[in-house]
Amino acid sequence: MMSANIRKVSRFGSFHVAEARIRNMLKWAGIILFAAVINPTLYLVSIGIGVGSLIDANNGVNGVSYLTFLAPALLASAAIQGSSDEVIFPVMDGFKWNRTFFGMRSTPLTARQISLGIFLAAMARAIVSIVIYWIVLYLFGALESDTAWLAMPAALLAGASMAAVMLALAAKIENENFFFTLVGRFIMIPMFLFSGTFYPLTQMPIFLQFFGWISPLWHATELGRYLTYDYPLSGLQLFTHLGVLSTMVAVGLFLSARVFAKRLEK
Amino acid sequence: MSEKLIVARGLTKTYGDFIAVDGIDFDVAKGESFGFLGPNGAGKSTTMRIIGATSVRTSGTLTILGKDPEVHGPQIRAHLGVVPQQDNLDNELTVSENIFIYGRYFGLSSSFINRKIPELLEFAQLEEKKDTKVEALSGGMKRRLTIARSLVSEPDILMLDEPTTGLDPQARHILWDRLFRLKEQGVTLLITTHYMDEAEQLCDRLIVMDKGKIMAEDSPAQLIKDYSTKEVLEVRFGSDRNQEMVDVLRPLADRIEVLPDRILLYATDGEQLLEQITAKGIHPNTSLVRRSSLEDVFLRLTGRSLVE
Amino acid sequence: MRSNAVELSEGRIGKFGEKYYAGRPQQVLLRNWLSFKSSAWIAVVSGFFEPVLYLLSFGYGIGELVGNISTPGGDISYAAYIAPGLLATSAMNGAMLDSTWNVFFKLNESRLYKAMLATSLGPLDVALGEIAWALMRGGIYATAFTAVIAGLGLVTSWWALLAIPAAIIVAFGFASFGMAITSFMKSHHQMNFFEIFLLPMFLFSGAFYPLTVFPGWAQAIIKALPLRQAIELVTRAMSGEFGINILVNFTYFMVMICVGLFFTTRRLNALFMK
After folding, report:
1. Which of the residues A21, A154, A182, B66 has an alpha carbon 20 to 30 A from that of A59?
2. Nearest residue of A to residue C52 by CA position?
3. What's the ipTM?
4. Architecture of B229-291 per CATH?
C-alpha cells in the first residue's frame, strides 16, 4: 500500500522543504561556489590591500593590519547577504512567481514547516559560503588568533538572524515591484556602510552609532573581531551581541511562521 | 467584390529548417471579418506578425492597403490595431493612461486622445476602472482594454490573435459582443483562433490552416456543407470497446471518425442513425446528436482535432 | 475629427531612418514619466542616497583613519579625494540599472517594447527614449550629488559644475552599451554577467585608493576599463584639468556611445522583426 507517511512528514516536514530547495540550489552549485571564492578575494585585494595601504601607512587601526581588522566584518557581511538572498528569492517565487508554496500547502506540510524549511536551506548554503570565505581569509593571513575558527559559527548566527527577519518581511510583501531595490538601498547598503565594517563604530557621531546597535552586522563583527584577533570584549558585551543575534533569529522565525500561515491558509 | 485590403501570394516564413508558413495565398476584403483557424503551431500567429509588419517574410508577396510591409512597416502599422495573444498592457500605468500613451506612440495629439478615451472606456465597459492600475484588472477586463487601446488610432484593420484564449465563458461572450459592434461599424477584423465556436461566431470567411498550409477556405457554413454532413452522432462504448465497434458501425454512417474517447458518425439525420444502431441491438454507453461544426471540418481535413 | 496616425507616418517617408525611427522618442520618455509619477519614484529617488551614503561612510569614517591624500594639486581630504569617483560610479550604476535590468524586464517579461513596436514607433525611438530617460535621471543625480559635496565644503572651484555634464556623458556611454548587451541576453541568469563584471570593476577602479598600490600590468588593465575612464573624466573635469588626457577619456566614451547605439538599434530591430 502506497501512502504518504503522515507522521514522518509531520516531524521532518521542514527538512523535506529544505531538501527541495537545496536540490534546486545544486543546479547552480558552480556559480554559488565561484561566487563564494571570488567575492572575498575581490574585497580583500581591493579594499583590504588598496585602502589598507593608505590606512596602514597612516596609523593603522586597533593595532592590527587593516586586513585583519576588515576580515571578520567581511565574513559576517557575506554571511548576511548570502542568507538574505537565499530567503528573499525563494519566498517571492513560492508566494508569487510560481506559487510553489501553495502546492506544498496542499500536502500534509504546514505553513510553519515551509517557512522553516526555506530558512534551513538558506543556512545550508550559508555554511558552505562561510567555510570557503574563512579559508580565503586564512590564506590571506588575515586571521591571527587560535579561536579564529569560532568566527564561522558567529557568522552563521549573523546570517541566521538576518535571514529569519527577511523571511518574515519578504513573506509580508505582496507586491515585489520595488522591494528588491528598497531592501538594497535602505537596508543592505546602509547596514554594510554603517556597522563599523570599515572602521570602528565609535568613530562615527553618536547619532549614527545607533544604526550600528540595531544592525546584526555590527554585533557579528564585534564578535568576529573578538574571536580573530585580540580585540577586547567584556562578558556583558559578549552576552549582548550573542543575545541580540539569537533574539532576532527567534523573533524572525516566529513571525515568519505566522505570516506564512496567514498567507497560505487564508 | 469590394476593395481588397490585404493580398498575399505564396507567403512563406522559415526559421532555419522549420517552415512556419508554407506558401499561402489569401485576400481580405474591406469590412470583412476574416479568420485563421487551426491548432497551435499551425502558422496563424506568424502570419499575423508578418501582416503586422513586425516579422519579415522569407518569400512571396504581400500588400496591405497597397503597401509592402517590408518597405513601409511604420506606415502599415499606422493602419493597424494589434491585439496580441498575450496581453502586453503597461502594468505600471492606469487604464486610461494605457490608452493615452498608446495613442501618443502613434503621434496622436493629446486633445484627440483625451476625446477618444471616454468613448473607448465605454466600449470596453471599463468607465469605473479608468484610474485603476492595470495589474488589478481581471483577465477579461485586460483583454477588453487591450482591444480598446488598439482602437485609439482608429485603425482600418483590427488584428486579434487568439482573442478569447484563457477567458471564462461569460467574459468570452462579452468580448464577442464587443467585436460584433466593431464589425457593424465596418472595421475589418483579422482573427486567429483554435476555437471553432469563435470562428463560427465571428468570421465571415476563414482559412483552415495546418502545418503552415491552407487546407480550405470559405465561409464557416459553406465549409461545413462542403466537408461534413449535416449532423453528427457521437457515441461512447467505453475505452475498451470503442475500437471493436468501429467495424460494425462503419457501414451505417456516411463517414466515421474514431477519437480516443468517442466515435463520431456522420449522417444527414443523426436521430435516425441512432435508431438504426439500437435496432441492431447495439447500445452505446452514451449518445449525442449534434449539428456539424468546424471541428468536424478540421478533423476531416487533417485527421486531427483542433484542441489536443 | 479623424485619427491622423496614417498621415503622420506617411510624412516620415524619405526622412532619416524611416524604417527604424518615427521621430518620437519623447513618447517613450513620457511613458516613463507617467510610470515614475505613480510609483517608480521611490526607486528612482532612493538611488540618489547611495553615493551620499558611501561618501559619508567612507569619506568620514575611513578618512579619519587615512588622513589627507596628496595629489598633484596639493593635499586634500579623503572625502574630497573619493567624491569624483563616487559620482562617476553612481552615474554608471544608475545608467546600468536603467539600461540592463529595466530593459530586460520590458523586453522579455512585460513585453512593453512589443506593444510600442506594434504602433508606428520604431526601434530607434525606443532606444533613444530609454537612454534619454536614463540620462535625465543620471543628470539629476549628478546635480544633487554635486550640491551635496559643495555643501560639505569638498569642492574648491567652479569647475566642479562640469561634474554634471561629465557624469551625463558617462551615463550615456554605459546606458547605450548596457542596452546593447542586454538585447542579447536570453535569461535572468545571463543577466548576472553584469554583476560579475561590475563588482570587480568597481572595487579595483581606484575610487577609494590610488591605483599605484597595484603592479604596472594591473594598472594598465584597470585603466582600459570604462569605470576608470569615467572616474578620470569626472575628476579631470572637476579640477579643470584640460589636456590630451581628458580628451582620451572623452573619446573613449564617444566610441562607447556610438557602438552601443548602433548595436542596440540593430538588435532591437532583429528581435522584433523575427
Report:
1. A154
2. A190
3. 0.85
4. 2-Layer Sandwich (3.30)
